[in-house]
Amino acid sequence: MIIEAYSFDFDGCFANYDYISTPDKNRSIIKSNMDLIQHIKKSKNPKIVFIGSNRQSLLDDRANSTADNRGSCYLGLRDVSRKIGAKFNSFLMADIYNDLKEGTTFDQALTYISKKTGLYNEKKVSKELSNFPNWVHDESKMTLIYAQIHQLAIDHPHDQIQFHFIDDKEVLLNALHEYFNQFPELIPKNVTLNLKTYTGPTDRTGKPVEQLFKAYNPIQGTSEVPDYDFRNSVKNMAAVAIESEPYVSSQNSPTNITNFDEAKKYHFDISAINVLKHYKPGMTPKFPADDTTITTKKGKEPHMVKTTKLSLFQQGYSESKRSSSNNSLQESRPKSDLTQESTEISYDQPKLRPWYQVFDNSLFFNRKALNEPLEKHEMPNNSTPDHS
Q: Looking at 52-159, which runs of residues are DSSP E strands?
């Protein structure tokens, strides 16, 4: 079966010129994007809608909702999904960074939004600012796409997925297209990445646009299996970027943020990073993300394994490759180097079965060569800030 997934940006995209130029009382996110909605509805394939905006936390959504009274993108894109007749996926990046169940951040945000105005209850929010889950703001949106496509591939292993990422920024999409063209192994093989530029039905003068959207050449994924531990992979991709960016700051810290643990200490309230600029497949941070719990398989039952501070950029392989590489890798290192598994504590998500082999401070996995180690990430020397 073919599944069509759509990840929609909001500011400048669905909240476009037509939308923000319409008086508040007459505004409709549906009317301002009806041409695109009708285009998408022509297909009879089942559809899923994601939030492709970088409003990936309640605090981000709240901050941008007041600009031109655009309102919450959570409500807006949920309404678009309903109009399309799609399944709405409320998974946000703040769920990843705070180890929350998918949709937790979204559901929390809804309790602070006025159904009448679509804006946040400022009095209520201001009392609890320190309690809201945050995330490492990746301005490149690479980690956002990575998380969404791998979640899709895990949920739909036997389907062909057409993943449409729609944004208004050509510079951002150009960079993403070049990046994933270079590294299609970051995309599961049953996923095709389709990038599209969309700014609404009219230009800044109110004149109808000649072309509703611009489509980039599709990119077919090549990874044999999805990344079952994509949550931890995303954290460590961000960790690489934090270590590489010369000036990552937090208003609550007197010094620059230099690693993932420091970012977490300040509740990820740090300046934006660009993961696409700094991360390449195979890199691991010097200081990996915090301890993580992942689902694997022991005997006939799935169970949870607690790992130390390691990058688990997991890749799966056939049982034969898994077995042979596991044996060869264990022979190459002392048994004392292997991370110990924890007690069984969970029996959920029985389909998840990642393969990995963990050593002291590095992870060995095999995309191509069975015993080729991950490239260790190094901090750049004499780095200078990029203000472009």
A: 87-88
